[in-house]
Write a structure and sequence with these properties.
Layout: E1 20-22, H1 40-53, E2 58-61, E3 87-88, E4 91-94, E5 100-102, E6 107-115, E7 122-131, E8 134-141, E9 156-157, E10 162-165, E11 178-184, E12 197-198, H2 203-209, H3 214-217
Parallel strand pairs: 1-2
Antiparallel strand pairs: 2-4, 3-12, 4-11, 5-10, 6-7, 6-9, 7-8, 8-11
């Protein structure tokens, strides 16, 4: 089992941790009942409301959160209609476009690509990590196009080094600006991409293969919504 001991929490965005606040985008949040979060403008309005109410610059959360956010995208409806892919497998960090993403640990570029189908990740980077004899991967989705410049397979990043920055909704294919951060134990044959949302039928597999990203970030439990 992947486990990382840390003495202090890690900010994956170039913002102080005191500016982080949890956000609930689940189907159980009654504030979202009449709000179409697949509209990036409306989604951004709700995120801004949460940020302003908490004097924050980063709203985060969402691991294993069931969301209505994906219901308008055909690539999330490939399974049976009564079992759509709507359970989020990473943590999202919602902040303004251009916010810098910092590597939480040392890593090497495994792969990257621009997943530019509406509802997908947009520019995406996957890093390979070796720790305690274990190989695993981290995925960074919804980046800017600039983030993919000068990248190459095997490029090394040190902990705390700039990886990329958050893309605008037109680049990250119709989402409000944010980082999707995910741990993957076995990336299988994927390159620059990996499922970030599961249906109920496949959830046991993906929960085992994509553990809670907070085991790397060590964010205080009081932050997690």
């Amino acid at each position: 089992m992947l486990a990382v001991a840390r003495s202090s929490p890690v900010s994956i965005l170039d913002e102080p941790l005191k500016k982080y606040t949890p956000i609930d985008l689940s189907i159980t949040n009654c504030e979202l009942a009449d709000l179409d979060l697949s509209d990036p403008g409306l989604c951004q309005q709700y995120i801004d409301l949460v940020l302003n109410n908490n004097s924050a610059s980063v709203a985060f959360g969402g691991y294993l959160e069931k969301r209505a956010l994906y219901r308008t995208y055909q690539n999330f409806l490939k399974k049976k209609e009564d079992d759509p892919r709507n359970i989020h497998l990473g943590i999202d960090f919602w902040s303004k476009a251009g916010t810098r993403v910092m590597g939480p640990i040392d890593g090497t570029v495994h792969s990257f690509r621009n997943n530019n189908i509406p509802g997908d990740y947009g520019p995406t980077i996957i890093l390979d990590h070796q720790m305690g004899g274990i190989t695993f991967y981290t995925l960074y989705g919804h980046l800017s196009l600039k983030s993919l410049e000068d990248l190459y397979i095997g490029r090394k990043f040190k902990k705390g080094e700039y990886i990329g920055d958050l893309g605008t909704p037109d680049i990250n294919v119709n989402y409000a600006s944010h980082l999707h951060f995910q741990i993957i134990k076995d990336v299988e044959a994927y390159r620059g991409d990996y499922p970030g949302v599961s249906n109920v039928a496949d959830l046991e597999f993906y929960t085992a293969n994509c553990p809670d990203p907070n085991i790397l970030l060590n964010l205080p439990l009081s932050f997690v919504g």
